[in-house]
Amino acid sequence: MGPLIPNGILTNEWNIIIAVLIGLAFGFILEASGFSSSRKLAGVFYGYDFAVLKVFFTAAVVSVIGLYYMDYLGWIDMGMLYVHPTYLWAAIIGGAIMGVGFVAGGFCPGTSLCAVAIGKLDAWVYVFGIMLGVFIFSEAYSVLEGLYNGSFLGNITLVDSFDIPANYIIFGVTIIALVAFFVSDIVRKRIKKVFY
Amino acid sequence: MINRNLAKILAKRYIILASLLLIAALGLVLLPAYQKNEHVTAEDLLAKVVNPERYVTSDDLAHKIIAKDPSILLIDLRDEEEYAEYTLAGALNIPFDAILNADYEAYLNQGQYDVVLFSNDDFKADQAWLILTRLDYKNLHVLKGGINGWYNTILNPPEPTENMAKEAFERYDFRKAAAMYFGVGIKAQDNEQQLNRTPKKVVVPVMKKKKRKPEGGC
Amino acid sequence: MDKSSENNRHVYWNPYFGGFLLGLLIIFTFYMTGRGLGASGAMKSSVVTLVDKVSHEHTINNAYYSKFVKDDESPMNTWLVFESLGVLAGAFISGSLSGRIGFRVQHSPKITSRRRLVFALFGGILFGLGAQIARGCTSGAALSGMAVLSTGGFITMLAIFGTAYLFAYFFRKNWI
Amino acid sequence: MKELEKTKRISISTVIFILVILIGVLTFKKPTNVYKKTNSETLAMVNTQDYLVDYTDVDQSNSVFIDIRERFEYSKGHIGEALNMPTADILEEQSISMFDGLRDAGKTIVFYGKTPNEANSAWMILYQLGYENIKILNSATQLVDNRFEVTNYDLEKPIANYLEIFNNGNPENSEDTQVLAPVTPKKVIAVKKKKKRKPEGGC
């Protein structure tokens, strides 16, 4: 049955409308969860606020469980979904650069857009920085092309990588997430409160 | 009392929520695996099989070819030699063995043309139709009777007898005219010309269907 | 506690609730469109559009820009741009409901606004660069990738948070 | 940490989420008929002629004839022992259990219709569902003078040398008469990509 638009059940014109609606909900959820505050976001790295970790892992676990249930029940065709491609070194190095950027700037692109919407000036600067970063990447593309296109492993999932059935992986991820929640609560109690 | 009980439950609320999540994940592991049908289920396939709409009669097809209907795409499922010998006007050759080749997918799996499959009879064409329909390809049709039927009705129609209805005569006239159109029974016709013409190469610029391409999103 | 909007400003959703709804939203997104969420793609589109406006020649010659420039449509006409417009609107609605709207620079009391802005710019540049290399940011690669168990998504997620924790020490003054 | 105190909404939504999953699982019905053969396997089988059987070659003691024509045609006349099962009914529960029984008993099932073409679809669907003991009677059947006759049938055999028909009635070969020859326009087919697209995406 699903996904609806790629299967032609809904016409492509809906794509734009749905994009705006999804964006609305996305922005609302991020903002209401407090992701428009850079200090709240950065808290995850200093142990005074684990909202990022909690929201992020809850979302990942809920979505992966939900999607696989829907797949089981035949409501959605997992084969039709876009699987983020794996370029091993690009993912590691890109992720590392993003990590430094995250802790230095205190936002990621999605949250910075939320912060832009409610008038945080540092987010405006941050978004400008992202655009500058994109610009730098594009200009230096000839240098980075090898990294960008290298070590391509295909649109693989963990099922392909580890050769374990998806259900066990999901179960493992759920346990990891729950342990992470538990540990984060312990850590937060020990660390000096930061008011922001 | 109630408050105290409530407080007790509330103290454990996150543990309860966590175990609910764990149960949901565990359920996924424990659910019995089953084999899935890809694309069209057998029941839907049967419903399509029973429906005679997939058949195109040779008269209809002749009408469409003569009217130069741009929406039909004829696919000849016989092998290359037979195709080279004789085929229908404008038909494209996809040998029966090759219908699942990725090269031909663009012709068979598209929403632009009404694809008419044909072979000598309609046996092979029906089988191809069934295999392709199971893949959920749309707009596929089968020429009823195949080339043999085409021969018997259009190229070499049986003459109606005196006591037949008027329609039969009209049909006969049409078939005769159609046969003429397709180059049969025309006197003083250049045979060589005919022979060279029939197995014409069909030029088909195909836009490949968009494959799932890893695209740099950000 | 949440009587005045001043107090309300710092009261956010239970993070589990936010995460739960976000998870449902991801499911919905995949169910409707077959793709995940994203954010930085919109910024890339804006950059491409800007550069294209300044010098069309340049975008065509550059191997990276030319991927996104088509003759018949604007590079802004992508799913992610519309989604990002929705994000802006949605965040504005949520912010105005809890009284969080207002132009200000948020920073730790130990640093100046100026320092915060410099670091924001620096972080933004790095994030923009990294997001392009890894083909996605936290929402596009990590979150949506994890929802379909994409290996790349998990690697990106681990790389982002791993490095962030490693470097957190050097930036501690900015936050604590 | 005010937000952590508020657990009402998350509890309610979790319960609803679990409920939806539960209802989904409880109401879920497994697909009854599952393809056992892939498309390429089917194609390979179809290309052999193993599934066609001549009337004389049928091992009468170990075979069951099934007439896949409509009921009234069957009632007019049929092969001696044949059962009737119109194509539309082959996936009914009773039919499937009958096929299962016959398969387990090691019997061969022979489908026939007016022509092999008619029995083709029913055979193909059941073959794809994994019933390998079904064959098609490679014969035409018809009712002649109230007697049901089974005649040989030439499957997919070209009935004529098509070229001959062009030669017939064209005895003289003149070089200069292209006037009447209809020049079929070269068909230019631009196949556009289909509506159904793989989702693309990324961040």
TrEMBL record, chain A:
<keyword id="KW-1133">Transmembrane helix</keyword>
<feature type="transmembrane region" description="Helical">
    <location>
        <begin position="89"/>
        <end position="116"/>
    </location>
</feature>
<protein>
    <submittedName>
        <fullName>YeeE/YedE family protein</fullName>
    </submittedName>
</protein>
<feature type="transmembrane region" description="Helical">
    <location>
        <begin position="123"/>
        <end position="144"/>
    </location>
</feature>
<feature type="transmembrane region" description="Helical">
    <location>
        <begin position="14"/>
        <end position="33"/>
    </location>
</feature>
<dbReference type="InterPro" id="IPR007272">
    <property type="entry name" value="Sulf_transp_TsuA/YedE"/>
</dbReference>
<feature type="transmembrane region" description="Helical">
    <location>
        <begin position="164"/>
        <end position="183"/>
    </location>
</feature>
<keyword id="KW-0472">Membrane</keyword>
<dbReference type="Pfam" id="PF04143">
    <property type="entry name" value="Sulf_transp"/>
</dbReference>
<feature type="transmembrane region" description="Helical">
    <location>
        <begin position="45"/>
        <end position="69"/>
    </location>
</feature>
<keyword id="KW-0812">Transmembrane</keyword>
From TrEMBL, chain B:
<dbReference type="InterPro" id="IPR001763">
    <property type="entry name" value="Rhodanese-like_dom"/>
</dbReference>
<feature type="domain" description="Rhodanese">
    <location>
        <begin position="68"/>
        <end position="159"/>
    </location>
</feature>
<dbReference type="Pfam" id="PF00581">
    <property type="entry name" value="Rhodanese"/>
</dbReference>
<protein>
    <submittedName>
        <fullName>Rhodanese-like domain-containing protein</fullName>
    </submittedName>
</protein>
<dbReference type="InterPro" id="IPR036873">
    <property type="entry name" value="Rhodanese-like_dom_sf"/>
</dbReference>
From TrEMBL, chain C:
<feature type="transmembrane region" description="Helical">
    <location>
        <begin position="12"/>
        <end position="33"/>
    </location>
</feature>
<keyword id="KW-0813">Transport</keyword>
<keyword id="KW-1133">Transmembrane helix</keyword>
<dbReference type="Pfam" id="PF04143">
    <property type="entry name" value="Sulf_transp"/>
</dbReference>
<protein>
    <submittedName>
        <fullName>YeeE/YedE family protein</fullName>
    </submittedName>
</protein>
<keyword id="KW-0472">Membrane</keyword>
<feature type="transmembrane region" description="Helical">
    <location>
        <begin position="117"/>
        <end position="134"/>
    </location>
</feature>
<feature type="transmembrane region" description="Helical">
    <location>
        <begin position="146"/>
        <end position="171"/>
    </location>
</feature>
<keyword id="KW-1003">Cell membrane</keyword>
<feature type="transmembrane region" description="Helical">
    <location>
        <begin position="79"/>
        <end position="97"/>
    </location>
</feature>
<dbReference type="GO" id="GO:0005886">
    <property type="term" value="C:plasma membrane"/>
</dbReference>
<comment type="similarity">
    <text>Belongs to the TsuA/YedE (TC 9.B.102) family.</text>
</comment>
UniProtKB/TrEMBL annotation, chain D:
<protein>
    <submittedName>
        <fullName>Rhodanese-like domain-containing protein</fullName>
    </submittedName>
</protein>
<keyword id="KW-0472">Membrane</keyword>
<keyword id="KW-0808">Transferase</keyword>
<dbReference type="InterPro" id="IPR036873">
    <property type="entry name" value="Rhodanese-like_dom_sf"/>
</dbReference>
<dbReference type="GO" id="GO:0016740">
    <property type="term" value="F:transferase activity"/>
</dbReference>
<keyword id="KW-0812">Transmembrane</keyword>
<dbReference type="InterPro" id="IPR001763">
    <property type="entry name" value="Rhodanese-like_dom"/>
</dbReference>
<keyword id="KW-1133">Transmembrane helix</keyword>
<feature type="transmembrane region" description="Helical">
    <location>
        <begin position="12"/>
        <end position="28"/>
    </location>
</feature>
<dbReference type="Pfam" id="PF00581">
    <property type="entry name" value="Rhodanese"/>
</dbReference>
<feature type="domain" description="Rhodanese">
    <location>
        <begin position="59"/>
        <end position="149"/>
    </location>
</feature>
